[in-house]
Automatic annotation (TrEMBL), chain A:
Any one GO molecular function term: ATP binding
Keyword Nucleotide-binding: yes
Domain (ABC transporter) ranges: 2-227
PANTHER family the UniProt entry points to: ABC TRANSPORTER ATP-BINDING PROTEIN ALBC-RELATED
Organism: Pontibacter mangrovi
Sorted UniProt keywords: ATP-binding, Nucleotide-binding, Transport
Designated name of the protein: ABC transporter ATP-binding protein
Top-level taxon: Bacteria
UniProtKB/TrEMBL annotation, chain B:
SUPFAM superfamilies documented for this protein: Winged helix' DNA-binding domain
CDD domains attached to this UniProt entry: WHTH_GntR (cd07377)
Name the UniProt record assigns to this protein: GntR family transcriptional regulator
Keyword Lyase (UniProt): no
Matching PANTHER family: GNTR-FAMILY TRANSCRIPTIONAL REGULATOR (PTHR38445:SF10), HTH-TYPE TRANSCRIPTIONAL REPRESSOR YTRA (PTHR38445)
Gene3D superfamilies: 1.10.287.100, Winged helix-like DNA-binding domain superfamily/Winged helix DNA-binding domain
Pfam families per record: GntR
SMART domains: HTH_GNTR
A single MF term (Gene Ontology): DNA-binding transcription factor activity
Keyword Transcription regulation assigned: yes
Domain HTH gntR-type as annotated: residue spans: 7-75
Record's keyword terms, sorted: DNA-binding, Transcription, Transcription regulation
Amino acid sequence: MIEIQELSFGYPGKPLLFQNLHLSLSQGHIYGLLGKNGAGKSTLLKNMVGLCFPRHGRCAIHGKSVSGRPVDLLEDLYFIPEEIYVPALTPQKFVSSTACFYPNFCEDSFYRYLQEFEVPQHAVLSKLSFGQQKKAIIAFGLAANTRLLVMDEPTNGLDIPSKVQFRKTIAAALTEERCIVISTHQVRDLDSLIDRLVVLHEQKIILNSSLDEIAEKLTFATLPDTAGKQVLYAEDSVRGKQVIMPNLQGTYSKVEIELLFNALISGNSSLLNHLKLTEYEQAF
Amino acid sequence: MEFRDNEAIYLQIAAYISERILLGEWPEEHKVPSVREMAVELQVNPNTVMRTYEFLQKQEVIYNKRGIGFFVAPDAAAKVKAYRKERFLEQDLPVFFTNLYLLGISLEELQGLYEKFTSDHYGASQKKES
């Protein structure tokens, strides 16, 4: 669905955030985009939705360049930034002023989502709390029924029941035609919801894999002692050493996304090589 | 539903469904919740639930009626039992035997413990037919 090729981008007068970046995203998946603060996650999302324009390379949706901002692409994508802006309108007025840009917008589902998220239906949006505003915009974005839905830190500001409702709503919203991209630091909020993990680090995408593939290749464990074990990465914790090892027995362990992320950005090349090497071996 | 860390989520969902079947809550020809309903209920990716359903379909525990959804297959309980037995014999029993051997527990001692356990938990009268 999205093809990013040889993308280079930097804000004017600033160093490049991405250099020769490649990324390909397909329909029917929920992608979790991870990166350190300042790695450029939000900027990458903005390049995807036509709010930032690459210096080199291109970002295409269904083969069409996004930076030309063609209407048929824009009406089929919805972007929810981390800092949202809501006008001084009620949900109903907001629908009548904005929904017309999204041909597949479904008003009934919008009000249903608002109800599920417990957002008051007749209040002026700008008077609501940050969390309520965010949920109202998420409800609107889902009701827009676009094939591409991009969310930057959507669970920030959501209370505990709202996070549960968010997971349920997103689980229900994924279809074979839809591609959902979520950038997040709160991996625990979303770890059974996302099925593919994308890691942005030092101007490049260093990982784009399904969690199933990762679990097939790597074992995550907590061990009292790592002597005699082939360990790719280890971190000390209260319970012992948290380690990542090659998955040699074909057993399953839950992918500890935080640990994996720390391992990847620590410049651990043996881990990345192992992920890539097995890919190479499997190809033959 | 709380997921454990040492088994794939799709298999844990399969075990959850298998339990409903073994307990008789979902009899043969009972409609299984749709992929979407199950994903929402468990707050997981629908692709994970799809993987569960494909797995259970391959085990002939559920089957797909085109356009209607998934249903509990005839003889599903027997299939679940056969599959679980195979997994138990392959995975759990060797560990158990190793412990018996290492700790020097005799089969006679074990038999006594087993009989006491079954009568305490299931009662002599409700002995499970094999």
